[in-house]
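Q&A log
Question type: sequence-to-structure
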Amino acid sequence: MAEFLLTDANVAHHVLPKIAAWQSIPTLVLDPGESLKSAETLFQVWNWLSTLNASKTDTLLALGGGTVLDLAGFAGATYKRGIQLHYFPTTLLAMVDAAHGGKTAINLEAGKNLAGLILQPAPPVTYERTWLSTLPERELRSGWVELFKHGLIKEFGLALWMEPCSFRELPPQDLLERGIAIKSAVVAQDPQDKAIRQILNFGHSMGHAVEAASHPTDYPLLHGEAIALGMVAEAYLSHHFHRLSEPSMSFVVRKILMEFPDLQPDFDFFQLLPYLLQDKKNPAEGLKMSLLRALGEADWGVPITLEQAEASWKFVRTLWNR
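Response status: OK
Response body:
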């Protein structure tokens, strides 16, 4: 059984040289960034595997952040109807989120992650916390957001644990492991994302729209930065149109504002609207979001009107543009 390695140029420079056993493995190094998750790159990976005569018993190793894992998962699951996969996440965001649960996807012009599938069983995951030491501060803060979200939706004690932490520093190993365990436990309850797994989408309906709208601008947001804004918007919705208390909403808003004072949510709501309407989580009848009913407790499938969503975005812009 042969192995093939997929990574991006940043990881190939910073992490790959530390793994001596992989120096002789056939490797495809792609340009970094969200644009990697495209149909064109997917075909590039398929053709690369085909040229190397990769078989169903071979293994595709994915070394990188969430974009690399998403692409590798989709490519590996569909090449010859599925070859073996093994994930090696190198960013905090990938370690606590993208590497767990088996979701794979590429982006379409209309929005993020609109073409993909869920792998069953999910690929094995191997990571080293020391790999995070090479991350730029923006990438590190971006990953902390998903950790914080895991506490907000399922275990408030974890969120409280993070309140005095700086998102500019590496998370302690035990906190990292607890966040991963929460994600894995939720996925195990609902592998196909039909019910409770959707609580993991808190902050993502608004956040994905913000992320997509930011990409054509001079300041494209990282995934976690956009989700941070989405969590503030959806905390507002959770309080005003669901069951979250005002002090609980303030807890979320205060922490995000403290960790991300430099964000620039300059988009008009109508710039977000096309992406919000294309959100793959929406049913045909309208917007539905995953919202908090209390800190550490979340609901999914909560109906939200466009007017309510617009009010939440006005709230976000007021906070950062004051």
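Response note: The longest strand covers residues 111-118.
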